[in-house]
Amino acid sequence: MIEVRGLSKRYGGRTAVDRLDFTVRPGVVTGFLGPNGAGKSTTMRMILGLDRPTAGTALVGGRPYRDLHAPLRQVGALLDAKAVHGGRSARNHLRCLAAANAIPAGRVEEVLAVVGLTAVADRPCRGFSLGMGQRLGIAAALLGDPAVLIFDEPVNGLDPEGILWIRTLMRNLAAEGRTVFVSSHLMAEMALTAEHLLVIGRGRILADTGMREFIEAN
Ligand code: ADP
Ligand code: ADP
Fold this sequence. Notes:
By secondary structure, this protein is of the alpha/beta class.
């Protein structure tokens, strides 16, 4: 569960995120919909402890991110598509991440299989396509078997097959009882992915509602 209370972020004189209050529950995919610049990434980064709120709090499993005991085991995140560079292989990248977080190396093979990268796991990441890079990012997010998953615009730039794959994965992860929070600027994408919807515009929450209810009302 993610609990956001009075969460605000100002950059200089500009308010990016303005007194947000919402809860993201386990067991369903919660979509975070809003146009570019609405404040989605800023909100997700504050939940993940990567940005400091100007005011308010964000709790993951009842604790602020900085107080999580083993963060990668409690929260997995895929942030805005940043390509994995360098000559390291996917397997090596994940093994380092696992070692740094006291996760058994066997788990690396499990997540490689889940994201379908086993066959290319020893190739250098710099040769990966956007879709393969995204799968590697998701493998990293799943490594600690976390109860909470945060995906920022995960389908951006992917082909239809990749989009369908991510959508199915997110729904399966939620069906397992995890908390899944996913952003998009595309209503059509959210309608196919999320069962609960948070709409954000200019840093304010505009709607917090079941997807079916939202579609019927709009
Ligand atoms: P979204 O993810 O919905 O596209 P963002 O959270 O990235 O929106 O941005 C929200 C607002 O905050 C935008 O106006 C953006 O320009 C501003 N912003 C984001 N990060 C910074 C930053 N590091 N410095 C200044 N302004 C920022
Ligand atoms: P199945 O036997 O049908 O694969 P699973 O429960 O193993 O059912 O998997 C359901 C979905 O959840 C799969 O898409 C898989 O990618 C994902 N999944 C299952 N377990 C984990 C896990 N521990 N960590 C990450 N993803 C998982």
